[in-house]
Design goal:
Helix 2 packs across helix 3. By secondary structure, the chain is mainly α. The chain has one domain. The protein has 3 helices and no strands.
Length: about 70
């Protein structure tokens, strides 16, 4: 009877959200998002519009960094 299978849920419950709120208390600088980089890459490759958005964001960031350095 002690052999209990545990299923990992990917759905946040109210308990999970309350714990996050208590832990970070709205301080965004203490929060680090854990992402699945490979899954994100595959999703971006699957949808062409996301590829365009990603390219646009990178271009904008590079321009902003260039302008910041050359001030």
């Amino acid at each position: 009877m002690n052999d209990v299978a545990v299923k990992q849920s990917k759905t946040l419950t109210q308990y999970d959200i309350a714990n996050l709120l208590n832990r970070f208390a709205g301080k965004h600088h203490d929060y680090v998002e854990i992402v699945d980089v490979q899954k994100n890459r595959l999703t971006i490759e699957k949808y062409p519009l996301l590829q365009d958005i990603e390219a646009s964001i990178k271009s904008h960031q590079q321009t902003a960094n260039f302008n910041k350095v050359n001030k």
